[in-house]
Design goal:
The structure is a single chain. With about 110 residues, the chain is mainly β. Strand 4 and strand 5 form a beta hairpin. It has strands at about 5, 10-15, 20-25, 30-35, 45-50, 55-60, 70-75, 80-85, 90-100, 110-114. Strands 2-10-9-4-5-6 form a 6-stranded mixed beta sheet, with no helix packed on it. Strands 1-3-8-7 form a 4-stranded antiparallel beta sheet, with no helix packed on it. Helix content is about 0%, strand content about 55%. It contains no helices and 10 strands.
Length: about 110
């Protein structure tokens, strides 16, 4: 059974940083994504990481480019999302997801105060 468990969310002031973790069990890491959902809004893509010929490759949504970094530790089967220069509009529940499958974590709340 595939399980994804997010952690690392919390309350931070604007301009601050947080690092989210997504621990994956039940399958080898393939392409893993982060999404987020703010109150009253649809869930939106944040970032994706996958391997291309053993080279980690990442894709970012425009609103987070240059501020967020996605990385993976294959030995720990964990994907991270390092978030810097946080803005109030980054406030949302953050979810990790296995690309191409309907596997989602339970989410972790990130709140950025102004």
């Amino acid at each position: 059974q595939v399980q994804l468990v997010e952690s690392g969310g919390g309350l931070v002031q604007a301009g601050g940083s947080l690092r989210l973790s997504c621990a994956v069990s039940g399958r080898t890491l393939t392409a893993i994504e982060w999404f987020r959902q703010a109150p009253g809004k649809e869930r939106e893509f944040v970032a994706r990481i996958w391997n291309v010929v053993n080279v980690q490759t990442a894709l970012y949504a425009d609103p987070v480019k240059g501020r967020f970094t996605i990385a993976r530790d294959n030995a720990k089967n964990t994907v991270y999302l390092q978030m810097s220069s946080l803005k109030p509009e980054d406030t949302a529940v953050y979810y990790c997801h296995v690309w191409g499958y309907d596997y989602w974590g339970q989410g972790t709340q990130v709140t950025v105060s102004s």
